[in-house]
Amino acid sequence: MALKKKETVEITKTPTNNSNDELLLLEQKKVRALEKIANSLDALTVWFEEVNKDEWSDRLQYYLAEFHTKFIKDENSNK
Question: Which helix (H) or strand (E) element contains residue 56?
Answer without folding.
Answer: helix 53-67
